[in-house]
Task: structure prediction
Amino acid sequence: MKVELQISETYEEEKLIVQASRETEKVQKVIEFAENLDLKEKIKGKIEDQVYLVEIGNIQRFYIENRKVLAETASQTYSVDLRLYQVFEILPTTFIQISQSEIVNINSISHLKLTPNGLVEIFLKNESFTYSSRRYLKTIKEKLEL
Result:
């Protein structure tokens, strides 16, 4: 893969152009990396009155419970002071929305199981599981290449 850098004061903003004969896994990784450069690496999470900076990569899922957005890692669950759509906007492309009330880290998925009623049961590495909604099924299949 060739890399070319052009620097000029005439450019108003940074722009990455990827040229390829076809879309390959390598090209897709470059694009995902570039898209994730401006995203946050940590998010503020609360447990009772204590505030923690939680690495986004360690979070397995975000979900809504009792009208609160929660972030679940392998060992802890934190309360997040953002709405779910605001959380989704700052997450890297390794996260996928699986329902109106839940976002899952693809890297935290252990395995999937298709249910007879057309839903996908998603098992996470921390041994918890959840279900996708039908509305997000197409997006999930495309993202996970099912």
